[in-house]
């Protein structure tokens, strides 16, 4: 009998400041609807140099341990998925292990593949536990990133930052993952990249969307084939994707989730016996069903719309937002998750929402996490964006949060708020 493995609990950390997206639109001379309706954005997290990848990751992990009363002696693996690393050799995970004084008897490393890195770490942890190699230990997987494109750029309104820490164990109170029923797709493409030494990414926006949708198709079809064979879903008048109670997608901007869901439905309709008589145009029109999107996807985007792009954490911010709103109603139901990382790789997997999901999410206290942020002016946002990454300001960290205080002899020093 296979072990039940998955996500037991999660915690979220975000920068202490944000801008209202309509303020940004007006400052750029743009109709606010272009950002709100066109991108699905409401607010955008703004980090300063002290709120780097390590600080966000450590804050999320410390919050997870504190809120969920995690016995740190049981942690046998710590993985950080990030594309905003701070050193070519020393991983973010080693910083987190030291700052939180976690056991030395654990495996620590970072995973990098653009926005897919967090899922790569999660799957490594799940398979480590499912195989028995974990010997009863749990894993902490942290997705921590800062999406930065620069002032007055096309990508500016999709910036953001934050971290989601996941506790992975044989007690999957949040989500019991269908181990082994993953669909994957990878291609060597240049849709998004950030050469060494650059703070801002280079993006071929339209091409990246095309790559995302193509990789989604390959990954979803791979999952669907395995899921149908295993009897988890079936071909019928209701397509396999429609049999999932909810689907969470990688969210570089919220409207991308609508494009992704249309593509997933199109994959089903293209191969469905029930849709064989439809013309390609009719299938595409059916795939755009607003009812399907509203039922399966819309409720997952609340946090993403208020924080922005978080690269590796974007999918898991969507999961957190979904369970924050609907954990109780979804208990016992199966959902799908699609992870995408430019370059590129995609993975579609599924899992069942746990009976204790609502209880676990209540402990995560996401409303308070957002309420403690400070709304700032566009002038202050622009000032923060112009600060050098290696010169953090002397700002005291909030209670329970970590902050980079200085870089001395190439060593990064952090402080925790009392």
UniProtKB/TrEMBL annotation:
This is Hydroxymethylglutaryl-CoA synthase. GO terms for biological process: acetyl-CoA metabolic process. Belongs to the thiolase-like superfamily. HMG-CoA synthase family. Pfam families: HMG_CoA_synt_C (PF08540), HMG_CoA_synt_N (PF01154). The lineage of its organism: Bacteria, Pseudomonadati, Myxococcota, Myxococcia, Myxococcales. SUPFAM superfamilies: Thiolase-like. Residues 176-390 form the Hydroxymethylglutaryl-coenzyme A synthase C-terminal domain. The keyword Transferase applies. The keyword Transferase applies. Keywords: Transferase. One of its GO terms (molecular function) is hydroxymethylglutaryl-CoA synthase activity. Residues 3-169 form the Hydroxymethylglutaryl-coenzyme A synthase N-terminal domain.
